[in-house]
Amino acid sequence: MAVLIKNARILIRDNQTQLVDVLIEGGRVVALAETLQETADTVINADGALLTPGLVDVHVHFREPGFAYKETILTGSQAAARGGFTTVLAMPNLNPVPATVEAFKFVQAKNLEDGQVHIEQYGAISAELTSVEVSDLTALAEAGAIAFSNDGKGVQKASTMLLAMQTAAKLGKPLVAHLEDESLVKGGVMNAGTQAQKLGLPGIEPLAESAQLARDLMLAYATGVHYHVAHLSTKESVALVRLAKAQGVNVTAEVSPHHLLLDESMITADNALFKMNPPLRTATDRAAVLAGLLDGTIDMIATDHAPHSESEKQGGFVGAAFGITGIETSFQLMYTKFVKTGIATLEQLLNWMNRNAIDSFNLNAPSQIMVGMIADLALFDLEHAHEIKADEFLSKGKNTPFIGSEVYGMTKATFVNGQLVYQAKK
Ligand SMILES: NC(=O)N[C@@H](CC(=O)O)C(=O)O
Ligand SMILES: [Zn+2]
Ligand SMILES: [Zn+2]
């Protein structure tokens, strides 16, 4: 089964691209030239669309086992393919939590069976995500855990975090932190700021994130672990990571598209589509996370794709679940808002959505279009505008405030190991 992609644009550097034909066979790119005359079973005319190595997302929630009504591994990975992603790292806030080898192997097998893209699984730092006793991280690593996290919950006790870091450091695996000091959250539902006051809603102090981050950076420094900050959202957190990097702490960080594009001033009504954890912060925080991304303090963009059912997003900020979806809109929003506007180059965007994640997490995924690469590829139409609509999502979750936004960069096709896993309807 050979596939020939004609007239694709590949990135040379910055925003410079080159038109090529690409031949895929046996799961790899086997030829690449200005024009290829080979015959193939399938020929796809890219019409000048951008061909990139498949995107990588180190932070998704696919909800199985335990919450299949929100998303399944099948629907989540179909959504990933529609977003142009070919490798994702799935979080462990599942039921049962993959804190034991048995629970881990169960979800790992299902990822492999149902996944339309490569799914790497996080092992849980502690049982039930809330307990203080650290899981057998060595056994989880042997079973194939890509890294460890308790995402969904912050690790409350320093001694738990320290032991987890010491073990993860020995294993050479990243430790990924959802930062939330519960003693400072106190039932908040949105950022503690002017908008929460106006709407009469309980606020979440930025300190709930940054105070725990400061603690963790000291522990990371002491242990030498690769420590990765999930969904970084405040200006203080950016400053702390910048300082820690300068001091030689082995720290990386991700930011979500929504913390780059939205802030609390845009929450003008009690609409739970804007409810997520961490909450949307102020315009100053938003500027700081963008500056941090541009200067390399923040390494990558991760969606924190968090699907919920329609009824779970009812009841306004107080009643609704935390979290929004993102895997089908991330590249499109980032391309439209940052590359098309000249704030960043295409090369930077691909570093943030592919290369830096691969390098940081030591993933076996391609970051350059070349002969011999594993054919994990995405094809993006940068020419035509598109309005994001709820009914086009392959994810079960329709919970995103970006519905109605106009974007460029819709995915035309996605390949995993040379297999077509997504193709846009004409
Ligand atoms: N981000 C969220 O608001 N929700 C996530 C959990 C998490 O990422 O902390 C979820 O699992 O729904
Ligand atoms: Zn989280
Ligand atoms: Zn998450």
TrEMBL record:
Belongs to the metallo-dependent hydrolases superfamily. DHOase family. Class I DHOase subfamily. Residues 48-237 form the Dihydroorotase catalytic domain. HAMAP family: PyrC_classI_B. Its EC number is 3.5.2.3. Binds 2 Zn(2+) ions per subunit. It catalyses: (S)-dihydroorotate + H2O = N-carbamoyl-L-aspartate + H(+). Pathway: Pyrimidine metabolism; UMP biosynthesis via de novo pathway; (S)-dihydroorotate from bicarbonate: step 3/3. The active site is at D304. InterPro entries: DHOase (IPR004722), DHOase/Allantoinase_Hydrolase (IPR050138), DHOase_cat (IPR024403), Dihydroorotase_CS (IPR002195), Metal-dep_hydrolase_composite (IPR011059), Metal_Hydrolase (IPR032466). It holds the Pfam family DHOase. This is Dihydroorotase. One of its GO terms (cellular component) is cytoplasm. SUPFAM superfamilies: Composite domain of metallo-dependent hydrolases, Metallo-dependent hydrolases. Catalyzes the reversible cyclization of carbamoyl aspartate to dihydroorotate. One of its GO terms (biological process) is 'de novo' UMP biosynthetic process. It comes from Weissella oryzae (strain DSM 25784 / JCM 18191 / LMG 30913 / SG25). Keywords: Hydrolase, Metal-binding, Pyrimidine biosynthesis, Zinc. Zn(2+) 2 binds at D151, H178, H231.
